[in-house]
Amino acid sequence: RLKRTRLGLDDFESLKVIGRGAFGEVRLVQKKDTGHVYAMKILRKADMLEKEQVGHIRAERDILVQADSLWVVKMFYSFQDKQNLYLLMEFLPGGDMMTLLMKKDTLSEEEAQFYVAETVLAIDSIHQLGFIHRDIKPDNLLLDSKGHVKLSDFGLCTGLKKAHRTEFYRNLSHNLTNDFTSQNMNSKRKAETWKRNRRQLAFSTVGTPDYIAPEVFMQTGYNKLCDWWSLGVIMYEMLIGYPPFCSETPQETYKKVMNWKETLIFPPEVPISDRAKHLILRLEPHLTSPVVIKHLILRLEPHLYSSNTSSSG
Questions:
Q1: Which residues hold ATP (predicted)?
Q2: Taking 50 as the threshold, does the pLDDT of residue 306 lie above it?
């Protein structure tokens, strides 16, 4: 459970910066009185687009941290000052899925099966609590020392990033650079371009719309199926080397996502099995149902205990 003791920055020694994002950074810190090591997420209040969201974020976070789920990054303390919100989380030395995917060209289907299986169970566990994550992406899939998946950033991005808003794309200039497909890139060059731009996207306050379901953009009502859409996009990226709708600009990506029935294409030069293609398509919310997902969970669960691919490499 979240500890309510009164703490401040002086109670922790900063060891090093281990991550940076749009709204702040993550530091490896040590609590001075106990010697325990944590990941301290520092969120700059001034950079959050809607200040009134901070209270909502903290309330949602408090509920989730009390769930004590195997699949959720644990939070131990939180405090704030005039500038920042500080969240003390468990430190996961395996890094995140974004970094793993940037290191490797693609994952084998066996490796992808392991990570997808764990992420299915992680997403299902938060849905069982009555929550929708809304921002499932490789940056938010953290890996422990043995390579097992844990979800992070519950509610911390919801409503804060322009990337979730249709009007952001409508209001932007139409002077766009050509998207990837118009340059006739092969899959290898597309993957190289994506990886070159990827970390910059993670730092952007706009974020990347690549993993966001169409109905979240439309804001006409969505349900937990939007999280399964995001997992389908991630599985595609694991096997192909880049997400299915990636483009030179967020606006072009948005257009592709909204027109996904025409733009979701498997490049013929990247060999993946029909079974893998079928699973990616089943994760699109327009083609799935809670019954299908439950069947998927039951089918994938045994792989957690039989797979020896539980390493982040």
A1: 41
A2: no
Binding-site residues from annotation for ATP: 41
Choices 3.20.20.450, 1.10.10.10, 1.10.510.10, 3.40.1190.20: CATH for 97-306 = 1.10.510.10
Which H/E stretch holds residue 26? strand 24-31
Structure confidence by residue, pLDDT tens digits, 244-285:
999 888 888 999 999 999 999 999 999 899 989 988 888 875
Does the annotation count 227 as an active-site position? no
Give start-end residues of each CATH 1.10.510.10 domain in the chain: 97-306
- Say which of 135, 139, 179, 227 is annotated catalytic: 135
Q: pTM of the full predicted structure?
A: 0.81
- Quote the CA–CA distance of 113 and 215 in Å, as a whole number: 27
Residue 140, helix vs strand vs coil? helix
pLDDT at 53: 56
| Arithmetic mean of pLDDT, 192-215 | 76
Q: How confident is the model at residue 157 (pLDDT cuts 50, 70, 90)?
A: very low
Task: Name the H helices within 25-96.
Answer: 53-65
> Where are the CATH 3.30.200.20 domain residues in the chain?
9-89
The CATH class of 9-89 is alpha beta
